[in-house]
Amino acid sequence: MKKVELMSPIKNWTSLEACKKYADAVYFSASSMSLRAGANNITLDELGDFVNECHKNDIKAYLTVNSVVYNQDLDKVEEVIQKAKDAKVDAVIVWDPATIEIAKEVGIDFFISTQANVSNYKAADFYKNIGAKRVIVAREMTLDQIKEMRNETDVEIEAFIHGAMCLAISGRCILSAYFENKSANKGACHQLCRRKWKLVDDDGNVIEPEGQYFLNPKDICMIEYIPEMIEAGIDAFKIEGRQRDPNYIETTAKYYRKAIEAYYNDSFTKEKAKKWKKELKKVYNREFSTGFYFGTPGAEGINFENSGSTTTNKRKEIGSVTHYYPKSKAAAIKLKHRGLEVGEKITIEGENTYIKQEVESIQINGEDVQRAEKGSTIGLKVKKRVRENDKIFVIID
């Protein structure tokens, strides 16, 4: 039986390090022609090296080229897709007809982005017939509608299982462009939906809604419904969050991998899923809902009171690596912003580094200590290589 593919979001090399033990595939941008232009930390020049690293870890690499394309963008789109082909990218994620045509001319596999708002099986077949290998269905589809689509077409179906929901249908929002001249459809969304808003009638009366963040959808979390998602015939599960930190990338990939494997070995239970959901609450989230999968959400799908993360855990930067000692697998760390004590959990993050571990021992001037104060330089055993200037974060429960 072919297993469902688990796809993680990638911001940079560190994100890949965070999810490579769990993800089957990753999706990322390497140019401004993406809906997460701010997540563009992988350059076109290093695209080949990045894809090689993915393939070395048996991970498929999908490049997003899914922004709106104007006349002046066409040369850039051609350059990006040709470089993707040369770098052996497994597929590009597209939706603009011009981008589709360029992908076909270059001869690279392509998937249809959720921006195309594929919401029925005839639309899915249309894209299949022009060469698409996969469609990423609209986030506004119900699970029953996806099942029907699966019964009527054999094109691959990809669906979001976790992460942010957009206020607008399939992300086609104009708020940011209208108010701040920053187009969400060109990858520059300023997320005005997450701000406080007031309702005012024609007479100037302010109408009091349930809360001031009434355009602020909760995040999707479908970990409790992995069996239903797989049995609906979905081929690939997508985690949203290309701008999230590596701890989010690792945690989401880890627990969805557990849920998927539990389904296939017949050990999935609702009790386990509830525990995994608690772990997911420890990383960035705006509270959870099931989105549109079981029907159009009402007020329960909006976080009225808080537009930021409601994570139960926080991470705080406390210092940086000043030296690595490969023989002893230890690092010298300057505690710039906070002290550290044995037993605390930390992450070490850098351009090519991601480590999550518990502090088992601390040394100052060769002596073991239980706690080091802010300003100290300490010696710390690390699981693998770190690099100068890598940042140290403490995870606070």
Concise account of the structure shown:
With 397 residues, this protein is of the alpha/beta class. It is 25% helix and 24% strand.
Report the sheet-strand fraction: 15-25%
Biggest β-sheet, characterized?
A: 8 strands, parallel, barrel
Radius of gyration: 22 Å
Which CATH top level class of the largest domain fits?
A: Alpha Beta
| Number of helices in the DSSP assignment | 10
Q: Count the strands? A: 22
The span between the termini is 40 Å
Which key features would you list for this structure?
Elongation Factor Tu (Ef-tu), domain 3, TIM Barrel, 397 residues, 22 strands, single chain, 6-stranded antiparallel beta sheet, alpha/beta, 8-stranded parallel β-barrel
Describe this structure in words.
With 397 residues, the chain is of the alpha/beta class. The chain folds into two domains: 5-301, Aldolase class I (TIM Barrel, Alpha-Beta Barrel); 314-396, Elongation Factor Tu (Ef-tu), domain 3 (Beta Barrel). The protein contains ten helices and 22 strands. It has helices at residues 13-19, 47-56, 74-86, 97-106, 121-129, 143-152, 175-180, 226-231, 246-264, 270-280; strands spanning 5-9, 25-28, 60-64, 91-94, 110-112, 134-136, 156-163, 199-200, 206-207, 219-221, 236-239, 288-289, 314-325, 330-335, 340-341, 345-350, 353-358, 362-364, 367-369, 371-372, 377-381, 391-396. Strands 1-2-3-4-5-6-7-11 form an eight-stranded parallel β-barrel, surrounded by five helices. The longest helix has 19 residues, at 246-264.
